[in-house]
Write a structure and sequence with these properties.
Elements lengths: L15 H8 L7 E9 L7 H21 L4 E7 L22 E9 L2 H12 L1 H8 L11 H13 L5 E10 L10 H16 L2 E6 L10 H9 L11 H10 L3 H6 L3 E8 L2 E9 L26 E6 L7 E7 L5 E6 L2 E6 H8 L5 E9 L13 E5 L7 H15 L1 E8 L7 E8 L18 E6 L23 H13 L12 H14 L15 H8 L38 H4 L2 H10 L7 H11 L9 H13 L1
Parallel strand pairs: 1-2, 1-4, 4-5, 6-12
Antiparallel strand pairs: 2-3, 6-7, 7-13, 8-9, 10-11, 12-14, 13-16, 14-15, 15-16
Amino acid sequence: MSTWNPENDVDLLSGSEDEEDVSMKRDYHGREAILFVVDANLQTAGMERLLEALNIIRTAFISGMLVNDKDLIGLIFANTKHSPPPLEASALDNIVMPDNCAVFLPLRQLTKPIVEHYLEFMGGVETQFADVYGLAEPDGRGRFDLMIRLCIEMLEKCGKKLNNAKIAYLTDVSEPHPSNSNHFQAALQKASDLEGKEFEFHVIPMVDDFDYEPFYKEFITLSRAIELDSFQVPDAQMLREILSDRKLKQDFLRRCLGHFSFYLGPNLSMSVQYYNYFQRRAYPRKVQILRRDNSVVRTKRVITVQKQKDDGSQDIEHEYQIKVTGGWYTCNVGEKDLRISMDQLNRVRNLHKPQMMLLGFKHGSSLPEVSYIKPANFMYPDDQSIIGSKRLFRALWERCLVRDKIAICLFMSKRKSIPRYVALVPVEAPDNGEEKTYRSLLCGDGFKIVYLPEAKHIRHLDMQDWNNTENTADEQKVQFFQKIIKKLRVDYQPNLINDPSLDALQANLLALSLDFSTDTKGLDNLLDTTQQDKRIEKLLPDYEMFAAEVEPPKKRAAKSTTAGASAPKMAKIDDEQLKEFEFVKSLIKDGALMRCTATQLHFILKQHFDVTVPKLVKEKLVAKIEELHSS
């Protein structure tokens, strides 16, 4: 998501070629690919730094397999002495392998064997890495430009269409070559190749005090086609956290929910797009499997139309199958049935395209701070459809921010949806220095879309039974619990809280597939119960002001047969006797069939009358037997 500062915006007086470039829609189809490149120099400062880098990749492998296994992931070791072939050696047949580089994993979809192979490699990396891969001689510096060329070639020849490709270079060396060498200039020239291929290059420093000035500042600005002064040094710890989660900044911000037009008035509109403030975590789709071989059961939906006869009977005159799109709705209008086809219904639903219409402005104080109707969205300008939308959007945002105004609009988010009344609240990007977490990168300058409540969202609660004199407390008791609430107050940090049920599901999947356990503490990472007990320890003696709690009476447990309880009911008639029809006739004559159990009555119907009936009460079963006997 690029900035919408008018200084960086497109010139409205530019030629037709620029207009065609801006209006051209981007192709969002394709897969994401991330190619990890680990610098072998990490082992010079001790194996701890190399193991930390490999653990980051291990976490990325596991999270990638659980979140989206369609993405492509590869691993290369750079600045190595030896170049052993990967497990799938045939994948490098059409690739020129340079010296001092080793491909551990070509770009492949994550599968269970790939992750198991990497975990097996990590088990002996501490003792075998120096012998298997080693370090480039004499100074541990291989050709950086050849390594970049290898990465570009692997991304181009992966065999899949890519929409977003990244190269993540994990290193602790500030410059790959001396600044006065020819290799240094050759490495800088490779930045233009990355920019032309639209491959993103990211440096992941494995030390917090990493220096970008000698080489990587210029290399990154050249690869991204930005000014040298606009480069900002990122936080190294944040980059490592992002990489382990496999959610770089671009991944979040490019996944918009939709594009639509924002109409400000007659003949005045701009194109915008909106995002979620949070990433939805969808559960795996439930499937039915066969018990014998765990194969997935394939289901097919079939709609059958039956026409009954007009004589009032239940006989079927005509029966045929239709598709889902061939169905219809029937409603009674007057004395006639009106049939509405699915095609007619879709045309009514598609009368309007997704859009937003401005209704007016109100002061910011008129909107409550929290609305419990629907999570808010974030709106951002886009020049794909209407050139100059960023400039107009910025003007509206600045005036609303200065005057503390909110815009009231009518918003239709997608086709076939119901229009909703929303409020556009101007928000500013927070200072990155306050919060050292990559989730703060999702918040920027723009409008927050707040969904306004309607009459159906307001509940009327009857508080008469609860709010009476018997439930009131004096001022001393109220003040006591005010102190308790202040002592137990915690800082809510959503990035530390995961979905407990989803965590349990993923932990079970990892335990079954990869045979290792994961930490699923959930809220335990946020709350320290020991510290909370210490906070309220001094206030517990004052709790005596409340009356003792009266425990509700416990239900009496059922007695066992050894304690004198009555035994379960037993059949009063022997089953062997029921096999004789004369004995059954005597029961019918004496009216003693009620002495039989329901199972015995079903046996009589099957054995002597060859009749099978569903489960019924005993009275109906007895009546059925008597009816069959009399007939």
